[in-house]
């Protein structure tokens, strides 16, 4: 007869920990297969209200742009045939018609043989004219005539009707994100309203007894909720209408009521925390009963991000992101952004990428695709990618990193010297003016603050004294803070110098023991 006790309870808890770990590809495929294909909500918006939305269908030009032949310069509309023989030695005189064509003025008189009409930039070309002579290339003969000393070719300084946009041409494709340039193109074509994909409303909930909102006094053992704000911002960046509902304690009945209401009024539900299947994590249990088919993946071979939970409840995506900020954001960008952008009618993200050399060996865990945040610096032979040494709970990792690299699930390391592809967080590489690699000290922040205020960008990478010394030897930094003791000479720092390095005296500091 089996007896249940503490040991058997622990065994049960262990068995409940991620019974089926899926590969990244399998988890994403299951999630998308449960959601797509589907019809996206479409609405018609005025141009002024369409900014930042995705076009739901192709937009076709209903008219030519420009709608008439027009002048590109200030000058005179002429017949090119009248000026075939014109030159410095043989100027041609033309009489002026009794009208001046300005923008918005329809010409009334034709340009006949031996005549010309004054015309402003953007003015319609009058009948009979096939070219424009710049005013700088003419000489007045009298009030009603000009002299021209150079020949012109047909079409000179003329934009023909439809030369910019032709009637029937596809202006913009479905999925195009409407920005200021797109609005200008649509307005020029006389289009006032466009069909756009309605932004998916995304409800965001943070969970955990320890969470408090920023701005409130922090109680003992509590932390501020960072995931709520950062996830909401990331949702907005990728086409969603983010609605942050707040942070809630791990009280199952209350949390279930909030989740059901959020799901009823939104197109997508995102939670952070409560997915590790621990004793206090209840979110995944609630999601399992919110609707069919329910959880499609719980546990993904990602690092960070193993606890990710993906579900579809009655046609709506429900996601429980890991609680640690770095884990939450990596899994969001890698697994959730593709789905969110499809729901918003947007094309896949096209993140900027660069190649950089990894200066140190990066250990990895076999069987899990690993994402490693890196800071980029300029080396003697190109970009260097320094891995962040902070864990998945460090929010500063994202703020200070330039991008991340990926280590395949079949690899147990990335060797030093590897040329790796780095996916950037921003469109361009931000190479700093001053690079500091080595031992960290708060005194450095005081020293470099005036430089930052003066407009210099300073990058400080904490890798310890030995790491800083190695970086300096490789030419990867401008300054390497060190405090290395040599037992043979009983001195600090000097014995470790090599040709090309100079020891600059620093400052003394007092350290305590905690």
From TrEMBL:
Its EC number is 2.10.1.1. It comes from the Bacteria. One of its GO terms (molecular function) is molybdopterin molybdotransferase activity. It is an enzyme of class 2 (transferase). The keyword Membrane does not apply. Residues 203-342 form the MoaB/Mog domain. Pfam families: MoCF_biosynth (PF00994), MoeA_C (PF03454), MoeA_N (PF03453), PBP_like (PF12727). It catalyses: adenylyl-molybdopterin + molybdate = Mo-molybdopterin + AMP + H(+). Its cofactor is Mg(2+). SUPFAM superfamilies: MoeA C-terminal domain-like, MoeA N-terminal region -like, Molybdenum cofactor biosynthesis proteins. Pathway: Cofactor biosynthesis; molybdopterin biosynthesis. InterPro entries: MoaB/Mog-like_dom_sf, MoaB/Mog_dom, MoCF_biosynth_CS, MoeA-like, MoeA_C_domain_IV, MoeA_C_domain_IV_sf, MoeA_linker/N, MoeA_linker/N_sf. Keywords: Magnesium, Metal-binding, Molybdenum, Molybdenum cofactor biosynthesis, Transferase. Signal peptide: none annotated. The keyword Metal-binding applies. Belongs to the MoeA family. Catalyzes the insertion of molybdate into adenylated molybdopterin with the concomitant release of AMP. This is Molybdopterin molybdenumtransferase. It comes from Candidatus Afipia apatlaquensis.
């Amino acid at each position: 007869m089996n007896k249940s006790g503490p040991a058997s309870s622990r065994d049960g808890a262990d068995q409940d920990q991620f019974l089926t770990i899926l590969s990244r590809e399998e988890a994403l495929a299951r999630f998308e297969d449960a959601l797509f294909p589907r019809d996206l909500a479409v609405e018609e918006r005025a141009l002024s209200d369409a900014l930042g939305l995705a076009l739901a269908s192709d937009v076709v030009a209903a008219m030519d742009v420009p709608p008439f032949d027009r002048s590109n310069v200030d000058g005179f509309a002429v017949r090119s045939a009248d000026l075939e023989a014109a030159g410095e030695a043989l100027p041609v005189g033309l009489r002026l018609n009794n009208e001046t064509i300005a923008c918005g003025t329809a010409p009334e008189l034709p340009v006949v043989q031996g005549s010309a009409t004054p015309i402003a930039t953007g003015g319609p070309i009058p009948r009979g004219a096939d070219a424009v002579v710049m005013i700088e290339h003419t000489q007045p003969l009298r009030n009603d005539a000009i002299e021209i000393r150079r020949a012109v070719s047909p079409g000179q300084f003329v934009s023909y009707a439809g030369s910019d946009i032709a009637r029937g041409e596809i202006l913009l494709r479905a999925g195009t994100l409407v920005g200021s340039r797109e609005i200008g193109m649509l307005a020029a074509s006389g289009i006032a309203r466009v069909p756009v994909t309605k932004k998916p409303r995304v409800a965001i909930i943070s969970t955990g007894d320890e969470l408090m909102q920023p701005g409130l006094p922090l109680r003992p053992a509590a932390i501020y909720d960072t995931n709520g704000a950062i996830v909401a911002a990331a949702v907005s960046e990728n086409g969603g209408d983010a609605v942050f509902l707040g942070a809630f304690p791990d009280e199952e009945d209350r949390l279930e009521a909030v989740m059901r209401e959020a799901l009823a009024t939104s197109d997508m539900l995102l939670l952070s925390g409560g997915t590790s299947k621990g004793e206090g994590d209840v979110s995944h249990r609630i999601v399992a009963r919110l609707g069919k088919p329910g959880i499609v993946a719980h546990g993904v071979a990602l690092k960070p991000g193993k606890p990710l939970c993906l579900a579809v409840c009655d046609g709506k995506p429900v996601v429980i992101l890991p609680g640690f900020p770095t884990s939450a954001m990596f899994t969001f960008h890698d697994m959730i952004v593709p789905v969110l952008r499809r729901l918003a009618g947007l094309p896949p993200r096209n993140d900027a990428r660069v190649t950089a050399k990894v200066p140190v060996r990066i250990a990895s865990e076999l069987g899990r695709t690993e994402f490693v945040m890196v800071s980029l610096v300029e080396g003697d032979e190109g970009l260097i990618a320094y891995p962040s040494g902070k864990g998945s709970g460090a929010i500063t990792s994202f703020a200070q990193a330039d991008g991340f690299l990926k280590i395949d699930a079949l690899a147990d390391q990335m060797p030093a010297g590897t040329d790796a592809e780095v996916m950037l967080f921003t469109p361009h590489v931000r190479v700093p003016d001053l690079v500091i690699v080595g031992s960290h000290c708060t005194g450095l922040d005081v020293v470099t603050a005036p430089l930052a205020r003066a407009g210099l960008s300073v990058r400080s990478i904490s890798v310890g004294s030995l790491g800083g010394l190695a970086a300096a030897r490789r030419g990867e930094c401008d300054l390497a803070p060190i405090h290395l003791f040599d037992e043979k000479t009983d001195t600090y720092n000097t014995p470790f110098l090599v040709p090309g390095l100079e020891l600059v005296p620093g400052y003394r500091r007092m350290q305590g023991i905690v």
